[in-house]
Every structure is written in structure tokens, then in C-alpha cells.
Inverse folding.
């Protein structure tokens, strides 16, 4: 029997430069319109795979509060890829978490996508990214985006991923207040608030037609001028510290600030990475987790 196959990969975080709720399906899932971009803040996953024998999936994690069993999307993604490939194997994954959990940064979804991509390569399964993205949608709304790992307009319930050019190299400060928010709870509060979904053909508060988002790319409009998140108001009602964190980033020189995803992380836009580094240091001096990052044209896991 051949020896085990190994790989070490990076799974990036993401931010939503805008996020609009455009409707709701009959099954209760919300329809989205969002511009999502990967950033250079990474979890790290080390894989060891031994083919043959009974399928066995084990997971180790450096963060004891993160589940290391079937509740973890890494475990679910490995199980899914093996089943769909008709392969039995012993899979062990060591997960090093650097992306805050329950922060709207997509860490768990990115880990799941990185698992699908890595096992596809290690097992030489040769599934296309389109096929992987279809399976990824079973795991979570953000997982298909991370399969492609590049800036994209994301619609539907996350399964419609359209690449968007010209969004790399934007300097951001990401700040996490230390308390995560439940995505399901934030959506329930959004529904309870009775907010009318935005019409799909209108994507920003300007308003602008959906087709005009491409006009923002390539520096034609600055990123800060499009920041909007339909979930932010209800999240801030549940967790008022979000408003204080946004205010802090603006006072430190951000050109705009926004909650990402369903929270609780907030990011600010800076003109340069060096200026963002200085601002992130100032946020940390005030006792808040923060890091300067840059948006990516393509993530290492998807390259």
C-alpha cells in the first residue's frame, strides 16, 4: 500500500463589500446580492490521507472551543467529498484557527472549501470546480464562493457566484469585538423587524442598477462609496458595540466602515496597507482584536 498523501493549505477570510437581502424563498432561505472578496487572513489546514480500508475522519484543532467532530464543516466536507468520489480513506486534518469564529468572516466556510479542494487534489479525483461548488452549497451559503476563491458577485442563497475583476489590493482593517453573533439569530431578527427586501434590480442605496457594479472595479469608484449591509442595523440592535467599533475605525482614519456578513466583525477601508497597519495597532491598543489585511485577486487554496 502506498504511503499517506499530505498537504498544507491556507484558507482565507472574506468580507462583504456590500450585502443586500433581495427576497426570501418558500423554504425560508434568504436571497442575497453581495460582493464578496477574500482577504489575506488565513486559517491553516494540514491534511494526511491514507487510501483504502474503512473511511475514518479525524480532526484536531488548536482552539478547544471549536468543535472537532461532525459539527465542524471540515469533517462534513471531507465526508462529502469521499462519498461523492466513491473513495474510502483515513483522513486526518490539523486545523490552526486564526480567523475569529462567528464573526461574519467566513472562516468555517473557507475551511470547508479548502477541504474539498485539497482532497480533490490529493485523491486525484479531478472533479471540476463547478462540481465542487455544487456540493459546497450543501454545506453552507458561503462555501461555493470559497471554492473559486476570488472576488465575486454572489446571489441566490450563495450558489450563484460570478467573478468580479479589479477588487484585489484594497487595504482594510478588520476588527472583532470578541463576541460572535449567530447568523440564524440575526436573520430571524431581520425578519421580525419586517424590513422589506430590496428589489433585485437595485443593489445599492444610491440606487444603482445591478449591472452597474462593474463600474466600481478598477478604481472607477472607491470601495468605501459602496459599503452597505442590510443586516447591520438589526445586528447593532442586538450588539450595540458594533456602532462603537465602526465609530472607532472612522476616527482612526477609515474612509468607510461596515459590518461584514451577519457580524460581528467590522472592517474599515484605508488608502494604503501601511496606514491600515498603524490603525490596526491603535485598535489593539484599545483592547480590541484587529488586523490589517489586503483583498486578494485569488486565494492560495483556490489557485
Amino acid at each position: 500500500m502506498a504511503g499517506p498523501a499530505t498537504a498544507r493549505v491556507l484558507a482565507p477570510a472574506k468580507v462583504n463589500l456590500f450585502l443586500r437581502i433581495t427576497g426570501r424563498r418558500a423554504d425560508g432561505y434568504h436571497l442575497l446580492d453581495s460582493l464578496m472578496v477574500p482577504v489575506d487572513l488565513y486559517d491553516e489546514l494540514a491534511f494526511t490521507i491514507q487510501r483504502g480500508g474503512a473511511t475514518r475522519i479525524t480532526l484536531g484543532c488548536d482552539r478547544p472551543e471549536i468543535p472537532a467532530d461532525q459539527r465542524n464543516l471540515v469533517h462534513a466536507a471531507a465526508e462529502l467529498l469521499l462519498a461523492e468520489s466513491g473513495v474510502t480513506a483515513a483522513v486526518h486534518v490539523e486545523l490552526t484557527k486564526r480567523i475569529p469564529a462567528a464573526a461574519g468572516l467566513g472562516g468555517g466556510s473557507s475551511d470547508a472549501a479548502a477541504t474539498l479542494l485539497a482532497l480533490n487534489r490529493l485523491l486525484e479525483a479531478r472533479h471540476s470546480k463547478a462540481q465542487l461548488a455544487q456540493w459546497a452549497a450543501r454545506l453552507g451559503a458561503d462555501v461555493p464562493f470559497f471554492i473559486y476563491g476570488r472576488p465575486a458577485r454572489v446571489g441566490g442563497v450563495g450558489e450563484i457566484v460570478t467573478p468580479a475583476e479589479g477588487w484585489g489590493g484594497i487595504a482594510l482593517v478588520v476588527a472583532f469585538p470578541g463576541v460572535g453573533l449567530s447568523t440564524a439569530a440575526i436573520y430571524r431578527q431581520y425578519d421580525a423587524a419586517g424590513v422589506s427586501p430590496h428589489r433585485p434590480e437595485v443593489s445599492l442605496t444610491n440606487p444603482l442598477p445591478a449591472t452597474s457594479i462593474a463600474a466600481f472595479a478598477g478604481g472607477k469608484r472607491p470601495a468605501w462609496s459602496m459599503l452597505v449591509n442590510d443586516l447591520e442595523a438589526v445586528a447593532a440592535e442586538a450588539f450595540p458595540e458594533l456602532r462603537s467599533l465602526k465609530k472607532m475605525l472612522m476616527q482612526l482614519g477609515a474612509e468607510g466602515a461596515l459590518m461584514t456578513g451577519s457580524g460581528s466583525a467590522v472592517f474599515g477601508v484605508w488608502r494604503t496597507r501601511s496606514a491600515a497597519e498603524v490603525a490596526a495597532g491603535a485598535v489593539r491598543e484599545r483592547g480590541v482584536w484587529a488586523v490589517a489585511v489586503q483583498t486578494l485577486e485569488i486565494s492560495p487554496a483556490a489557485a
Observations:
- The two ends are 30 Å apart (CA to CA).
- The helical segments are 73-85, 107-122, 129-136, 143-148, 183-192, 232-238, 241-251, 273-285.
